[in-house]
Fold this sequence. Notes:
The protein is mainly beta. The chain has helices at residues 46-53, 126-130, and strands at residues 2-7, 28-32, 38-41, 62-64, 92-96, 99-103. The chain is elongated. It starts with a strand and ends in a 6-residue tail after the last helix. The mean pLDDT is 81.
Amino acid sequence: MQIRFWGVRGSIAVPNRRMLRYGGNTSCVEVTLADGTEIILDAGTGIRELGEARTSQAKIVRVLLTHLHLDHIQGLLFFSPLFDPTNETLGYRITEGDATLCYLPDHEPALGARVAGAPPGWISGIGLAAGREAAS
């Protein structure tokens, strides 16, 4: 397991030269497992630099938020991998027994077209809904 801290500040980011030793970004930790799985803990301002420096070709980006204080989420809109249409950051599949919930909010599976009759590969989220994509 490899761990890299992209932000360790609380409450307010402080970008200035005095903070070079510990950094001035708010909470963001990148965890890479031996099998290549990437997990990002919190989305403070450090997530912006993580996105810019990211070299992984992984298409699944796991961002886990510990809580919703501003210093843990304020960088999320600046994390460029979330806007890459080839990434699979788009919902959750929860299964219990023979019941399954696939939650895919705001991903516009067929913007400007009808879902009925569309080729399955074109409809975003269909793999997750059908159980073909990782649910980790």
